[in-house]
Every structure is written in C-alpha cells, then in structure tokens.
Design goal:
The complex is a heterotrimer. Chain A is mostly helical. Chain A has one domain. Chain A starts with a helix and ends in an 8-residue tail after the last helix. The model of chain A has no long low-confidence stretch (mean pLDDT 86). Helix content of chain B is 38%, strand content 25%. Chain B contains nine helices and ten strands. In chain B, a hairpin with a 2-residue loop joins strand 9 and strand 10. The termini of chain B are far apart. By secondary structure, chain C is mainly alpha-helical. Chain C has one domain: ABC transporter involved in vitamin B12 uptake, BtuC, CATH 1.10.3470. Chain C is built from twelve helices and two strands. The longest helix of chain C has 27 residues. The mean pLDDT of chain C is 90. The chains are: A mainly alpha, B alpha/beta, C mainly alpha. The interface between B and C is medium-sized, with 35 and 29 residues.
C-alpha cells in the first residue's frame, strides 16, 4: 500500500519537476518569473488533445505537443520578452501576468470550457507488477519520462560545452558576454526549451488528470514554491524541491488532508526566513 | 568617539584580502586609508560599515563590540556612510531627501500623523545641511536631475543628516572633474571640523589635503601609518605605488 | 520600481471629481446603479490597500484577495456566531486582518519584489483552497444570511441601497483620508524611500523590516474592511471571493489607475470594473481584451491613467 503512495508521489514530483526546471532556468537566466508558465502547461495539454483527437495517436501527441509549445515559447520570446530584457524586472513579471489572461481565454475560445480527456495508449493501459503490487504502467511511464529529462539536463548542463555556456550566463551574464558567449541565442533556446518542457508536463499528465481550463493555475502555485525553495537557476534545487513538495503534498493529501497545506506553508516560510535565496542558490 | 579594529582578517575564496589589519582612532580626526588597486581598502571600508563581516578579529566602536551588528544597527549607533556609487532617492528633490534623512536623526520615523514636509525644525535643519554641502541653490531639484558633482554632494548631505558620530566616506571624489574635486575637498575640510571622518580614497592628493593621519594598505596588509608629510616621504610607500 | 510623482494637489482634485461623480450617480441612479456604485467603492478600498504597499515599500501582492476573504468570513462569523453588530464587526475585521498581516509580513516583507509576488500568489491560492474545503466556513456553499449594520435608531435604513451606498462611500473617504495622512507622514515618506532605494534607508539606520511590516499590516487591515463591507452588500459570501482572479483584478486596477497616487487607485478600480462589466455583457472573451489592454498599459503607459491626467494638467498650464 505504501509503495503505491510512494509511486504516486514520485509521479507527481516528476510532473512538478518538468514544470519547475523550465521556470527556474528561465528565472536564473532572464531574472524574470514567467507567471504564464502554467498557461504553457495548459496549452501543451490542449495541443496534445487536438493532435490526439485528429490522429488518434497518443504517441504523436506526446512528441508534437511539446515541440509546438516550444515554438509558441520561441514566438513569445522573439515578439515580447527579447525586447523587454532590460526593463525593470517587475514590469516584466507584470507582463507575464497579463499573458495568463490571454492564455486562459484563448484556450476557452479555441477549445471551449468543458473538460476533456485523453486516454493512455494501449501499450501503457495495463498494470505492471512492482514488488508484487500492481501499478498503472502509464504512471510508471510518466516517472520514466521525468527521470530521462532529469538525467539528460544534468548531463547537458554539467558535462557539455553548451551547458557550461548556459551556466556561465546564469552565474555571471556580464562576464559571459565578454567571453563572446552568445547570450541572446542561449536565452532564446533555453526559453523555448523551458516552454517545451511545460508542454511536455501538460501532455504527459493529461491522461491522468484530464484537460480543462483552470489547470494552469492549479499547478503554478506548487511550481512556484518549488522554484522558491530550490533557488532560482538551480537544477539541483529543482530536483530536490520537486521531490520534497511532491512527496509532502501527495502524502499529506492522503494522511492528513487539512494539515497538508499548512505543512507546505511552513516549509516555505522556514526556508524564506533562513535561506531567502533558496536551498541551493546557484 | 573611538574606533578600533583589532587583527581583522578576511579571505575571499583563495585570496586573503585583509591580513591582520588593525586600526585605531581615539579622538575626532580625519583618517585616510589609501593603497594601490586591490590593496583591500574597499573591503576594509565595508567591514567597518557593516556591509561585510570579517572572518576573524574584532571591531570596537565607542568601547562596544560591534562585530555582530548589521548595517542598520551600526548606523543607529552613529556610523554613517556615503557610497562610492551614488545611492540617492531618485524621485525625491534635494530638500525632500535631506528631510527624509533627518527624520531619522530626530527619531520620528514611526510617526504617522504629521506631514514630514511641514515640519519646521526639520525644514530649517535641512537648509543648514544644504548650505554645508553647497546645495542651497538646488533644494527643489530632483536628485535624478542634478549634475553628477551635485549628486556627490547630496550623497554627502544624506550621510551627515543622520548626525553621525563617525562619517565613513568611500571615494567621495569618484568620477569628479578637477574643479569638482577642489570643491568637495573644501566641503569635507569644513565637515571635518564637526565630524570624525574616515576616508578611503584613490586620489592621493585629496588625502594629503584632508587627512590628519593616513594608513597605507598593500595587498591586504597595513604597511605604513603616519601624517601626510611622512607618507609622502616614505620610500616604502613610493615603492608599492610605483612597483618594484 | 517606479510610482507616480508625489502630487498631493492633483490627488485631491481627482478625489473630489470622483466623489462628485459617485454622489451624483448615486442620487439619480437606479437601484442597480446604486448597487454598482457600492461595489465600485468597495473595490476602490481594496485597490487602495494594494496601491499603498506597492508604492510605499515596493511590494506587489498577488494574494491580497486572501484578506478580502479574511475580512468577509471574519465579519460573517462574528455577526452570525457571536452576535456582534455588523458595524463593530467591520472594525474588528480590520484588527484581524492587520494582525494576520503582521504575522505573514514578518516572513515576507524583505523578499525581493519577484519572490514577493510568487509567495503572495502561493499564499493566496492556499487560502483559497482551504476556504473551499473548510466545513466551518461553509465550504463551496459559503455563508449566507449576513445582515447590514442596523442604524434604525438613527432613522437610517441600511437596507435601502442608496443609504448603504453612501455608507460605503463614507468608509472610502475615511480610509482615503487616513492613508493620505500616512503617506505624507515620516513613516510614509520612509516607505516611499524604501521603494526607491532600500539599501540607503538601511544605511541611515532605518528599521526597514518594521516599516514594511507595518505597511503590509495596514494594507491587510484595509483589504479586510473591504471584504467585510462586500459581504454586507451582498448578504452572503462565496469562496470565489478569494480566487486568484480577484487578486489579479486588484493588480490590474492599480496598474491602470497608476501606482502611487491613492486616488489613482480609485480611478483604476472604477474604470476597470465598469469596463469589465460592460465587456462581459457583450463578449465571452473579455479576459483576452483585458489581458491585452493590461500589457499595453504596462508597456506604454507607465503611470496609467494618473500619468495621463498629469500630462493633461501640464498642458493646461
């Protein structure tokens, strides 16, 4: 029984991770929080829904929804974020807030206000035995996706030249520019990647939670908390943070529903008091 | 007022920026701290003001240990600083900025009932400070709209508005033209009549004109102490500035 | 973070104009108009609470609907469960809001602006979730049967929409007066200075955390008053009041009005509420329009409508 809870928590943590990592790297690089990140998650899920409805293939949706979401991110960057890079950070955050409204109504206009669902592909519609307990294989798949992304990102960031350039741009943008690291290109691709990851989170979670307007904000808050806890720009922080919050939230909801919220509050409050830059400042 | 720094050490990464630095001041005087680039002047300044905490060593101000006091608390004890890079209230006029700083001197900052700008005493005091810092003609100009030299003067004005027991000046002539520098020197000379001052400076001539006593730093260590004449004549000081 | 120029004269002029408009519409308007005016007045109080911490302390809160909720629910509980008079309950909710504001403020006021937004958003959402699931607070059904203050002894019938509308306007005036006094005071000026350069205020010995916590607590208390009046206007509360879109609407109001002038917040509240009301009658996708309008103002009209008025005033000289 407890194994099931652990796996559920792990699956939720992976979804949070996919969202948090995009948001935190964008925050670290561009010093702004994209409050519309949840909107991109939602848009990813809806695009996946349309692809699924049109092609009847979950796999096509899984591949193309994140790509299209990344494309939307790229367009947003080129049209809007690139030009306000040097403005007051508060101004930039306010802009992303305006985008939430646009995102929400766009989704409602294009897809209506009802909730929809996507069914998991046949390959993953059964249960696998984990330590003699049956567990939905689709959820295991989501966990797998999360780990794959985690390790890929870790590898790229820590072991490749491109990763080093990204880390340099986060830690010390001025020096990075002096070293001829093309920060603008890095910002562009990283922003698009972050948006793509949000879209990936949306489509992978769709068979479990469904697709509906309003899913943008539900997940945004916990994602923000993960970013606050983990520290802006920190991959490690995003990993630890999403595991921490994912587990506290999942277990909390099952065993102590009323207190779960308060515990998360308390964790956040204590972190802010003692380590205002997050657990793992980059 | 008395200030003493005993064996201050500070390391950044693998660089020892301050090495057993000790400084003493037991009366009202104008103390200068000079040294070539990277000598640790800035770091020493920040350790005194509270912007940085030393690794080992003690700081005593008026006989109490202030090691663990942050900037706000040190300011309330009477240590006031002016910054190398102008730190002004961009939207406020000269008069408003000075009156704002004075609200701290008169300890009325928690008052919510009366208008600050209507306060007669503070109004008069602000004009006095403006006079002392050469800003009397610019009272109603916004800080952002002042010429750079005047902004430096306002930077000083805000620092002295708090009625400090010790005034810390971080490169007060930074970025100034020779004419502006001459003006500031006269200003600070007048201030040194009223206040105890510690100046960190790059410009040696400024220090020679203003300081009663000078400490010379080189690569984190104190290598010389004396008045302007002995510093000028010291072969040791000349060597560290000209290189070997 | 920038805010409107300190301009007490224009602030007062704008306030008088808005007041006259409110009074005239109230006296000559229909039942519905009066209800609408009361709504705008209450939202203006909410907007002023947001404007106060934004311009005095540089804190932009995306979770302030939580205090609307605290004011509303506290008011309801005090009157229904404890038999306290509605008028007194509004006063008490100020205290409740302010005290909770001090507790929360202690943890968050020194956070950098962006972190502050994120944390207040998170807190607001959590409060919203809690309120929806709490049986004591009526869950998703909310609480109904809330009465307005009883001044029949004075011959005043608060159930008359005209009278209640005037009542809310009186509260608005009182709060406006107090907030402007605080803005002009040493504390207010120091808060303004903190927004412009908090490091310098620390360097001159200011109690930055204390000032900001007081500002946040005041703001929380004022927002709670708005919540209390709101619940008396409608006679019931639903937990929708604490939804993030309400906090968001407040933010839009102060940006549209122009941060920093207090009467600008009232102007913003009026304009935004009217536009939203009219738009939602015509089209389904009014959020889209508001989103674009908001982005436009953030990009091109730094001081919102207040900025526009200042320009007009300059031209007229």
């Amino acid at each position: 029984m407890i194994l099931i809870q652990i796996l559920n928590a792990l699956q939720f943590s992976m979804t949070l991770f996919l969202l948090a990592v995009g948001l935190t790297i964008i925050f670290g690089l561009m010093k702004i929080v994209n409050l519309a990140h949840g909107s991109l998650y939602m848009v990813g899920a809806y695009i996946g829904l349309s692809i699924f409805n049109y092609t009847e293939s979950f796999w096509l949706a899984l591949i193309f929804a994140p790509v299209l979401t990344a494309l939307i991110g790229a367009i947003l960057y080129s049209l809007l974020f690139k030009h306000i890079q040097n403005a007051d950070p508060m101004k930039q955050v306010l802009l992303t807030f305006g985008l939430i409204y646009i995102g929400l109504d766009s989704v409602r206009l294009l897809w209506g206000t009802m909730s929809h669902s996507i069914s998991a592909p046949n390959l993953l519609s059964n249960s696998l035995l984990v330590l003699n307990e049956p567990y939905p294989s689709y959820r295991l798949f989501v966990i797998l996706v999360g780990f794959v992304v985690m390790f890929t990102l870790y590898f790229v960031l820590e072991k490749t030249k491109i990763g080093a350039k990204v880390r340099a741009s986060v830690d010390d943008p001025e020096t990075a520019q002096l070293l001829q690291i093309n920060t603008d290109k890095i910002l562009f691709y990283t922003f698009a990647l972050g948006c793509g990851l949000a879209g990936l989170a949306g489509i992978t979670v769709a068979p479990i939670l469904g697709v509906e307007p309003g899913m943008d904000m539900e997940v945004l808050v916990l994602t923000l908390i993960v970013v606050v806890l983990g520290g802006p720009g920190s991959l490690k922080g995003a990993i630890i943070g999403s595991l921490l919050i994912g587990f506290v939230d999942s277990f909390g909801k099952v065993y102590i529903p009323q207190l779960a919220q308060i515990i998360i509050y308390a964790v956040m409050a204590l972190t802010l008091l003692f380590k205002p830059d997050g657990l793992y400042k980059r | 007022m008395s200030l003493s720094l005993n064996n201050i050490n500070k390391t950044f990464g693998s660089v020892k920026v301050l090495n057993n630095v000790s400084i003493n001041s037991i009366k009202k005087e104008c103390l200068g701290i000079i040294g070539p680039n990277g000598a640790g002047k800035s770091t020493l300044f920040k350790v005194i003001s509270g912007n940085l905490k030393q690794d080992t060593g003690d700081i005593f101000f008026n006989d109490s240990n202030i090691n663990n006091l942050n900037i706000e608390k040190r300011a309330r004890l009477g240590i006031s600083q002016s910054f190398q890079k102008n730190s002004l209230f961009s939207e406020m006029t000269v008069k408003e900025s000075l009156m704002l700083a004075l609200s701290h001197k008169y300890k009325i900052t928690f008052n919510i009932l009366h208008s600050l700008l209507d306060n007669k005493t503070i109004n008069i005091d602000a004009k006095t400070i403006a006079k002392d810092t050469g800003l009397l003609d610019y009272l109603d100009i916004k800080s952002d709209n002042l010429a750079y030299g005047l902004q430096r003067q306002l930077e000083l004005g805000i620092a002295i508005a708090c009625n400090p027991k010790l005034l810390l000046l971080d490169e007060p002539t930074a970025g100034m033209s020779p004419a502006e520098t001459k003006g500031i020197i006269i200003l600070i000379k007048n201030l040194s009549i009223k206040y105890s001052i510690i100046i960190v400076e790059h410009d040696m001539d400024v220090i020679y004109e203003l300081a009663d006593r000078i400490y010379v730093l080189d690569r984190g260590s104190l290598i010389f102490e004396g008045d302007a004449k002995s510093v000028k004549e010291s072969k040791l000081v000349q060597k560290i500035y000209l290189g070997i | 973070m920038r805010a409107a120029n300190y301009n007490p004269k224009l602030r007062l002029q704008l306030m008088i104009i808005l007041l006259l408009l409110a009074l005239i519409s109230n006296i000559f308007g229909s039942y519905f108009t009066r209800f609408f005016i009361a709504e705008i007045t209450i939202l203006s109080i909410f907007a002023m609470s947001l404007d106060f911490i934004a311009s005095r302390g540089g804190m932009i809160s995306l979770g302030h609907a939580m205090f609307l909720g605290i004011g509303a629910y506290a008011s309801a509980i005090l009157t229904i469960n404890y038999g306290i008079s509605p008028f007194s309950s509004t006063l008490y909710t100020f205290l409740v809001g302010a005290i909770i504001g001090i507790i929360i403020g202690y943890f968050i006021v020194l956070l950098d602006g962006i972190f502050f937004i994120m944390v207040t958003l998170a807190l607001g959402e959590m409060f919203n979730a809690w309120v929806f699931t709490s049986d004591y607070l009526g869950g998703s059904d909310g609480i109904s049967g809330i009465l307005r203050p009883n001044f029949l002894i004075l011959g005043i019938d608060m159930n008359n929409p005209l009278i209640f509308s005037f009542y809310t306007i009186l509260w608005l005036l009182g709060i406006y007066f107090i907030l402007t006094k605080i803005t002009d005071s040493p504390l207010g000026r120091n808060l303004d200075a903190i927004r412009q350069n908090k490091d310098r205020i620390s360097a001159i010995g200011g109690y930055t955390k204390a000032y900001k916590t007081i500002a946040f607590a005041l703001s929380a208390g004022v927002a709670s008053i708005a919540g209390s009046l709101y619940v008396q206007l409608n006679g019931f509360i639903s937990p929708e009041l604490t939804h993030w879109t309400v906090s968001g609407e407040g933010l839009i109001m102060i940006i549209v009005g122009g941060i920093g002038s207090i009467s600008g917040a009232i102007l913003g509240a009026t304009v935004v509420h009217i536009i939203q009301h009219e738009l939602s009658n015509i089209i389904n996708w009014w959020m889209l329009v508001i989103g674009f309008g908001f982005i436009f103002i953030v990009l091109f009209m730094k001081d919102g409508l207040w900025g526009l008025l200042e320009q007009i005033q300059k031209r007229l000289r």
